[in-house]
Amino acid sequence: MNHRIMGATRQQLIQQLVFFDEQYSLFFDHYVRDYGREKQIVDALVRRYRETLEELLAKDDGALSQSLQNVTLLGSSVRVHFEEDGYEELFTVVFPTEIDPDQNRISFLSPIGRQLLLTAPRDMLVLESPVGKQQVQIGEVRYTYTGGFSSP
Questions:
Q1: Where are the domains of the chain?
Q2: Mean pLDDT of all residues in the chain?
C-alpha cells in the first residue's frame, strides 16, 4: 500500500480504538441485551480486539500492511471455505451500523462475525450458525474498510 493509503488505514484503526475506549458502554448497552454470559463473551472479544489493534498500530507501515492480510479486523473481508461441500463465501466483518446482508457485510456481534473476528488465513474452525455447525477454513483476509461508523 502506498503511504497515503496506509496513513488513512492507520487513522481508521485508531478511530476504532478511540471508539471502544470512549463509547463502549453506550455501544454495549445499545447492542447487547444480556448482561450475564453475553456480556462476558462480548467484553472478552472487544478486549482481545483492542489488544490486537494496539499491537498492529505499534508496527511501521510495511509491517502493518503485511499484518492486515494476516488477521480479520473490523473492516476485513475474509474468504471462508466450507469443508463439507467445498463452497466458499466472502464476508466483511463490520460494526453493527454498517451491516448489509446483500453484500455479506456482517456485524462482529453476530454469531458468525464473532467467530470470524481475529481469525487468520489457514485457521480451521467449526463455524456455528443458526443453521448448524460446519467445519471451515479461513482463506484470504484483506482489510477493505473504507466507510466510517456511527454511534448507536
A1: 3-67, 76-143
A2: 88
